[in-house]
Task: inverse folding
């Protein structure tokens, strides 16, 4: 069996489970309950951009591919 370095293992994990880098978990507590919820940094520019894209997509009848990046 191959032995991988810690760095190689982390890179593999990041590659397999890559998601949004702007979203992270925030811990919450209320009374006896606690847990985690998704959170993000608010960027007004990106909000306006995605809102504009959503309005354009809503007006199209058939969408096969839209590049959001």
Result:
């Amino acid at each position: 069996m191959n032995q991988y370095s810690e760095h190689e293992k982390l890179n593999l994990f990041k590659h397999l489970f890559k998601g949004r880098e702007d979203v992270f978990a925030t811990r919450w507590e209320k009374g006896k309950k606690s847990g985690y919820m998704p959170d993000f940094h608010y960027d007004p520019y990106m909000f306006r951009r995605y809102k504009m894209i959503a309005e354009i997509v809503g007006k199209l009848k058939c969408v096969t591919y839209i590049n959001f990046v």
Q: What stands out?
A: The longest strand covers residues 23-30. DSSP finds two helices and two strands in the chain. The chain has one domain: 19-69. The chain has a mean pLDDT of 78.
